[in-house]
Design brief:
Keywords: NAD, Oxidoreductase
Radius of gyration: 25 Å
GO biological process, one term: L-valine catabolic process
Structural class: alpha/beta
InterPro entries: Ald_DH/histidinol_DH, Ald_DH_C, Ald_DH_CS_CYS, Ald_DH_N, Aldehyde_DH_dom, MeMal-semiAld_DH
Organism: Vibrio sinaloensis DSM 21326
Protein name: methylmalonate-semialdehyde dehydrogenase (CoA acylating)
Shape: globular
CATH architecture of the largest domain: 3-Layer(aba) Sandwich
CATH superfamily of the largest domain: Aldehyde Dehydrogenase, Chain A, domain 1
Length: 497
């Protein structure tokens, strides 16, 4: 019997009374594994009302106790790490190794949330004027919300609600309708860690439920990760309703290969960074920019990519899993076809990929193009599949100019043995996250995830100190006490009756 995904409202896992349901499918088989409810208006309203109630109590809980909840939570997440990874693999199709990485990167953010006290400290200046002191207080905002994508169903929710809740807020999570099961398990463990009822709510649905979160006056913030058109819509709609919004959008991440780089390291890192997780990650390397003689390595790159075979989550020989849906597969195949039609040379074509035992899976094999130009659709659009395109330039300056003209600015990397080239690149490139001999430079949680330009809508980024500022407000107090008011006299003892 197909399970119905519960809502999590008021600290209870409840079955929705909606009449609108969405099928949740296994990407490796396209079999229906669950039914997802589109929460009714009453259910959405109940979630907001209870989150508001919970906030009014939770904000007054000592920050040390809020930190202890996060300490217990990270312990439980580690204890259930492999179980979470297997659940995540079933609903995303990720191979187990990728799924474990998804869970672990989320745990790292929870560990940072346990350090919340040091990030909530204000500032004090004594005698800003005669006998007047000023100090600032960092206080939570209220009800916060998050809308998360399919590709990291553990990591990205854990980017959001632990830090928001540790800072004293309550949180409403709407996970992707394609992968709702992992978030429910995350909530169960959060409750087991001692989180009070109501500080976390989980609702399900599609655009109607998103619009409810974007427009409800009691919701103070919206965090989002997803595609460019939706991120733009989330940002403009949320800010129109006076909400603080951080919306992480698409990417077109370039790796620049200098001719003095270590060839073996380049090829090994480039293969993994481009086809790992089936290319379905916003920090995947999808463009390789070969500078000068390094273009001679493209044939060797092709040979290594050809060895990468997709497969089921528990296949230890598989390099990556299926795409998330049939629609996603068809989009990737369309872009591959357009690349060929527009004159790019397809050195490796994964369009007709098959995996034994899984004839209905959303498989795309590793695909490699060269002779790509910046006006081609495979360069201009985020493919979000196991597809790597190669461009060739003569100088580092040309590579920098090419990347800075691209509308996206999420991540980039340079492989070189020259400190001068690396410094020039990291200084001049207009991209928020830069790797030097590191292919996917995702920062650890004590920094922040800092995409730029068309990859991000908002001001304050995810996790790290910026996230704490996103989920809090600063109150400044200016105080004066008068010497004349100091009590005097022989007996100041309070008399108890």
């Amino acid at each position: 019997m197909t399970q119905s995904v519960p809502l999590y409202i008021g600290g209870e896992f409840i079955q929705s009374k909606t009449n609108q349901w969405i099928d949740v499918t296994n990407p490796a088989t396209n079999e229906v594994i669950a039914k997802l409810p589109c929460a009714s208006t009453d259910e959405m309203s109940n979630a907001v009302d209870d989150a508001k109630r919970a906030f009014n109590e939770w904000k007054n809980v000592a920050i040390s106790e809020r930190a202890r909840v996060m300490l217990r939570y990270q312990h439980l997440l580690k204890e259930h790490h492999d179980e979470l990874a297997q659940l995540l693999s079933h609903e995303t199709g990720k191979i187990l190794l990728d799924a474990k990485g998804d869970v672990w990167r989320g745990i790292e953010v929870v560990e940072q949330a346990a350090n919340i006290a040091s990030n909530m400290m204000g500032e004090t200046v004594e005698n800003v004027a005669t006998d007047i002191d000023s100090y600032s207080l960092i206080q939570p905002l209220g009800v916060c919300s998050g809308i998360t994508p399919f590709n990291f169903p553990a990591m990205i929710p854990l980017w959001m609600f632990p830090l928001a809740i540790a800072a004293g807020n309550s949180f409403i999570l709407k996970p992707s309708e394609q992968v709702p099961l992992t978030s429910i398990r995350l909530a169960q463990l959060f409750e087991q860690a001692g989180a009070p009822k109501g500080v976390l709510q989980i609702v399900h649905g599609a655009k109607e439920q998103v619009d409810y979160l974007l427009s409800h006056p009691d919701i103070r913030t919206v965090s989002f990760v997803g595609s460019v058109p939706v991120a733009e819509y989330i940002y403009h709609t949320g800010t129109l309703h006076n909400k603080r919004v951080q919306a992480f959008a698409g990417a077109k991440n370039h790796m620049v290969i200098m001719p003095d780089a270590n060839k073996n390291q380049v090829i090994s890192n480039l293969v993994g960074a481009s086809v790992g997780a089936a290319g379905q990650r916003c920090m995947a390397i999808s463009v390789a920019v070969f500078v000068g003689d390094s273009k001679q390595w493209i044939d060797d790159l092709c040979q290594e990519m050809a060895l990468m075979k997709p497969g089921a989550w528990d296949d230890e020989q598989a390099a990556y899993g299926p795409l998330i849906s049939r629609a996603a597969k068809q989009r990737v195949l369309r872009l591959i076809s357009e690349g060929k039609a527009q004159g790019a040379e397809c050195l490796l074509d994964g369009s007709d990929c098959r995996v034994d035992g899984f004839p209905e899976g959303n498989w795309v094999g590793p695909t490699l193009f060269r002779s790509v130009t910046a006006d081609m659709s495979i360069y201009q659009q985020e493919i979000f599949g196991p597809v790597l395109i190669c461009l060739e330039v003569d100088t580092l300056e040309e590579a920098i100019e090419l990347i800075n003209q691209n509308p996206y600015g999420n991540g980039t990397s340079i492989f070189t043995s020259s400190g001068g080239a690396a410094r020039k690149y990291q200084h001049e490139i207009q991209v928020g996250q830069v790797g030097v001999n590191v292919p996917i430079p995702v920062p650890l949680p004590f920094f922040s995830f800092t995409g730029w330009r068309g990859s991000f809508y908002g001001d304050l980024h995810a996790y790290g100190k910026q996230a704490v500022r996103f989920y809090t407000e600063t109150k400044t107090v200016t105080a004066r006490w008068f010497d004349d008011d100091i009590p005097t006299g022989p007996n100041l003892t309070i008399q108890l009756k």
